[in-house]
Design goal:
6-stranded antiparallel beta sheet; Arc Repressor Mutant, subunit A; alpha+beta; Jelly Rolls; single chain; 276 residues; 22% strand
Length: 276
C-alpha cells in the first residue's frame, strides 16, 4: 500500500515580537492570534519567557528537543531563548503571554522554582481563573507602562501559573533526519503508523535501523514512543470533553476497552484517572 504524502502546512512568520516586548515598566504582555488549521508559525525565539495558551482549538508547539500538544485548559511555559515552532492542529485562538525577566525572577514563579523546573518547557493545567485573567489582559501593541489594574491581573496570572499542576504532554524528538521524519509522520497521524515495519518503509529504512535509532537517540522503542504520542493525543481530546469511545476510535482502537488496556499498560492507571 502506498504511504500517504506528508501533510503540507501553510507557513507564516511570527508577529514582530518587539511590538509586544515586555519591559520593567510593563512586565507582562498579552497577544491574541487567530490561526487556521495546518498553519505553521516559522521558528523563532525570544529573550524573555513565554506562556502559550489556546482558548479555542489545539496547537502543537515544538521547542528544543520535544514537541507538546496544547489544547484548551492547558498552558505551555517556554523559557527565554528556546527556539519554538507552532503547528495548528485545528483552528485555534492562540493567546501568548510574554514575561519580563525581572518579573519572572522576583515574582511568584521564583518562589516555587527551587528545583529549577521553570528553566525547561512544561505543560500546565490552565485553571478557569487563569483563563479569565488572561482574557482580561490588554492586547494593544506598543510601549508604555502598565496600569494599576493590569499590574494586579499580571501578579494574579503569575500566582496561578506558580500553583498550576504540570501535565505530561511532552514528546521527545530525535535529531537524526530519517527518524525525525518518521516521528513527524506519527505525530500527524498516529493511528496510521501502527507497526515499526510500516513506519520504517515510509522513510526508506529497515525496521532494524529505525529500532536502533530509537534506542540510540531516544532511549526507547518505537512502540513505547508511539504510545506517548497516543497518550498526549488522548489528553488533548479529553480536555475538549470528548467521550472515551470517541477518543479510542480516533486513535485507531476497535473499542474503549482496548484503549483502556493500553493506558493501563503504559502508565499503570485507568483512563478515567489519567484523563479526568
Amino acid at each position: 500500500m502506498k504511504a500517504p504524502r506528508a501533510k503540507r502546512h501553510v507557513s507564516v512568520p511570527p508577529i514582530d515580537p518587539q511590538v509586544y516586548a515586555p519591559t520593567a515598566a510593563r512586565p507582562l504582555r498579552a497577544k491574541l492570534r487567530h490561526l487556521a488549521a495546518d498553519t505553521q508559525v516559522e521558528p523563532h525565539s525570544h529573550t524573555w519567557a513565554q506562556i502559550a495558551m489556546s482558548s479555542k482549538g489545539v496547537i502543537r508547539m515544538t521547542a528544543g528537543d520535544s514537541t507538546y500538544l496544547v489544547p484548551p485548559q492547558r498552558a505551555l511555559w517556554i523559557p527565554p531563548g528556546v527556539e519554538h515552532v507552532v503547528t495548528v492542529v485545528e483552528d485555534a485562538d492562540l493567546r501568548t503571554l510574554y514575561l519580563h525577566q525581572d518579573s519572572a525572577h522576583h515574582g511568584p514563579l521564583r518562589t516555587v522554582d527551587s528545583d529549577g523546573a521553570w528553566r525547561h518547557c512544561r505543560v500546565l493545567e490552565a485553571s478557569s481563573l487563569l483563563q479569565e485573567l488572561v482574557a482580561h489582559l490588554p492586547l494593544e501593541p506598543g510601549n508604555g507602562s502598565s496600569t494599576e489594574r493590569e499590574r494586579c491581573i499580571g501578579h494574579l496570572v503569575q500566582d496561578e501559573l506558580a500553583h498550576a499542576r504540570p501535565v505530561r504532554l511532552g514528546i521527545d524528538l530525535p535529531r537524526d533526519k530519517r527518524l525525525r521524519a518518521l516521528c513527524e509522520s506519527v505525530l500527524e497521524d498516529p493511528a496510521r503508523w501502527v507497526t515499526l515495519d510500516d513506519a520504517a518503509r515510509h522513510v526508506g529504512a529497515s525496521a532494524r535501523t529505525i529500532a536502533r535509532l530509537f534506542r540510540a537517540e531516544l532511549d526507547t522503542t518505537f512502540v513505547h514512543w508511539r504510545q506517548q504520542v497516543l497518550l498526549a493525543r488522548a489528553l488533548s481530546m479529553a480536555a475538549r470533553k470528548l467521550p472515551m469511545s470517541t477518543i479510542a476510535a480516533e486513535l485507531g482502537y476497535t473499542s474503549a476497552s482496548a484503549f483502556s488496556a493500553m493506558v493501563k499498560r503504559s502508565v499503570g492507571m485507568s483512563p478515567s484517572r489519567l484523563l479526568g
